[in-house]
Design brief:
Order of helices and strands: EEHEHEEHEEHHHH
Strand content: 5-15%
Radius of gyration: 30 Å
CATH topology of the largest domain: Deoxyribonuclease I, Chain A
Number of helices: 7
Oligomer: single chain
């Protein structure tokens, strides 16, 4: 891929490419386009790759309604699909406003990322800023780049619930029964009342009727407290503690944890 208007930047880690950024400025000729070097290029699908820059191309995929698609727009979007690139621009946000009344505000500057970049979450959200454009009539595209190895140390959400242990069944049942307030119609007679009975009836003899919501809340509270007193909370096992864990496992672990939902 050779062009005076294209720059390739490889982000390395121990001499391995972790991210390839292809910066493009498309100088549109009087007729046709000058993106042949891009359309003939097949990026390595094993390397996270982003194409950024002024593409000077209108396409229904990102342009505002009313803009006539560029004659090469289909060729370009077909190239994107064949190489698994997605447009990461915020939808509908203008990139070029022009200075003449006849100018039509457009979306011409793009950030395209292949599937590996999206799965590994190496690019942060793209924002558009006219204030940072240094006097240009094109807005600035701003995004953060996260090193691949930094993503693995992001703690996953803490799991909820408790580990079920059949050997602790009798202890759990005993604790649960003792925590049920005596005012509940299903509570055994020998239950003890919880320490905090604010807003709850003192017992059957009071004649007060518990609402369904209050009864359910007290019932759920007894389940949670009995579990907390007798069972161990769920924890996420750290697979990196295995003796066979290596860098390839770390990469696979990161991709699995950061992938979006869906078949892909």
């Amino acid at each position: 891929m050779v062009s005076l208007n294209t720059m390739v930047l490889d982000v390395l880690d121990n001499m391995s490419i972790t991210l390839c950024i292809i910066n493009v400025y498309h100088t549109q000729p009087a007729r046709g386009h000058d993106l042949h070097h891009i359309l003939c290029h097949e990026p390595d699908d094993t390397i996270p790759t982003a194409v950024v820059g002024d593409l000077n191309t209108h396409s229904p995929m990102w342009s505002l309604p009313g803009h006539t698609p560029s004659s090469w727009a289909t060729l370009f979007t077909d190239w994107m699909g064949a190489n698994s690139f997605q447009c990461k621009n915020p939808p509908g946000v203008l990139m070029w406003v022009g200075s003449r009344e006849t100018d039509h505000p457009s979306i011409l500057d793009l950030v395209l990322a292949n599937d590996l970049v999206c799965y590994s979450a190496q690019l942060g959200d793209v924002t558009v800023s006219l204030a940072d454009s240094l006097g240009s009539d094109h807005a600035t595209l701003i995004f953060d780049i996260f090193p691949l190895d930094s993503i693995t140390i992001i703690p996953p959400p803490a799991p909820s619930g408790f580990k079920v242990d059949d050997e602790l069944k009798d202890s759990w049942v005993k604790e649960f029964i003792m925590l049920l307030p005596p005012g509940l119609p299903y509570a055994p007679k020998h239950c003890t009342a919880p320490l905090d009975l604010t807003g709850t009836p003192s017992g059957h003899e009071s004649g007060a009727q518990e609402s369904l919501d209050e009864s359910l809340n007290l019932f759920n509270r007894a389940i949670n407290e009995a579990s907390r007193h007798t069972l161990k909370p769920n924890r996420i096992p750290d697979p990196r503690g295995a003796r066979w864990w290596n860098d390839a496992c770390s990469v696979a672990h990161t991709l699995a944890r950061t992938t979006s939902a869906g078949r892909e």
